[in-house]
Amino acid sequence: MYAALKSIGAYIPEKVMTNKDFEKMVDTSDEWIVKRTGIRERHIAAENEMTSDMGVEAAKVAIHRAGLKINDIDMIVCATISPDYLCMPSTACVIASKLGRTNVTAFDISAACTGFIYAMAVAKAFIESGMKKNVLIVGAEKLSAIVDYTDRTTCVLFGDGAGAAVISATNKKSEAITDIHISADGSYGDLLMTPGCGVKEPCSQKVLEEKRCTMKMKGNETFKIAVRTLTSDVVNILNDNEIEAKDITHFIPHQANYRIIKAVGDALKMTPEQVVLTVHKYGNTSSASIPMAMNDIWESGKLLPGDTLLLDAFGGGLTWGSALLPFAGKANKQ
Ligand code: UT7
Questions:
Q1: Of 15, 121, 213, 254, whose Cβ has the fewest other Cβ atoms within 10 Å?
Q2: Atom of ligand 1 nearest to the CA of 315
Q3: What's the pTM?
Q4: Is there a single domain that holds both residue 212 and residue 167?
C-alpha cells in the first residue's frame, strides 16, 4: 500500500495588513521589509476567528476536492504553533469536532514551520503500515495572536492562514509519495522560541508584561542556518532518489524570506518558473505556508496530476524537512 497526495485546500483570512500599516506602528519602512524579506502584505485573522476555524475551512475544501465525505477521513493531524488552547484539547480535536467527525484519531504536531512536512510523514507512515486509509493533514496558524506588535524584528514577518491536504491509500506506485526527510537539532532551540507561558516560565503578570509568550527570533543566525540546512537537505533528497532539479515541476519552499528561497533555488539551479512564491502576499504563515502556496498554484491551474513536487521547510526547534512526491489529485477545471 502506498500513500498519495489526493487534494489541497486553503483558507486565507480576509483582512490584509500592508507594510505601510506597520510604518505607523513601529520604526520600519516598506522599503526595508521588501528588500530584506520580499513581504509586501500578509492576511490577519479576525478577532473571533480561531486557528481551528481556519483549519476547518481549509479542510472542507481539501476533503471536497478529494471527492470524499468527512466520514471517510480516519485520522486528522494538525501542525500548528498557535493552537486554540495551550495544552488541551489539541487543535486537531477541535477541528474534528467542528467538522462533525467524532470517534476519529486526531492529534497535533509541534514542529513549527516544518510542521506540514512532519504531518505528511506521519500520514505516509500510518497509511503504508495499513493503519489508516484517508488522513487529513492541516497546517493552520493564527500567528498574529503570538506576535509582539512592538518588536519590529519579528512583527513584520508573520501572517495568518491555513492549508490542508488529504493523503490517501493507493495501490498505484506512480501516485506514491516518493520520499520525506524530517530532522531536528534542539541545541539551536533558543534561536526561535516563545519563552513564556510554558512550564519553564509559567504564565504570570511579569511574563505577560515582558511579552515572553510571543515569538522571539535571532533572525540573522536563523537565516544563515536556514540557507545551509535547506540547501543540503534538498540536494540529499534529490540525490537519494536519483532525481535532478530540472525534473521538478514545482519547488514549493516554506515562505519565510524571499532571500532564503532565492539562495536555495539558485543553489539547485531552479528556474523562476519552477519556484513557487507567495511570501510577498501572505508573509510567513509557519506550518500553513507550504499548503497555502500549493493551493495557490492548484487554483491558478498550474498544478496538474503527475507533476513532481519538491517541498522544503525550516523552523523553530530547530526543525527542517523536505518531501518529494507526485501530485495525485485532479486538476482545477473551474
Ligand atoms: O520561519 C521560520 C524560519 N525563519 C526564518 O528563516 C527567518 C530567518 N531570518 C530572516 O528572514 C532575516 O534574518 C530577517 C528578515 C528576520 C532580518 O533580516 P537581516 O538581513 O538578517 O537583518 P538583521 O537582523 O541583521 O538586522 C539588520 C538591521 C538591524 O539594525 P542595525 O543593528 O544594523 O542598526 C536591525 O535592527 O535591520 C534592523 N531591523 C529593521 N529595520 C527596519 C530589523 N528589523 C527591522 C525592521 N525595519 N522591521
A1: 15
A2: 2
A3: 0.97
A4: no
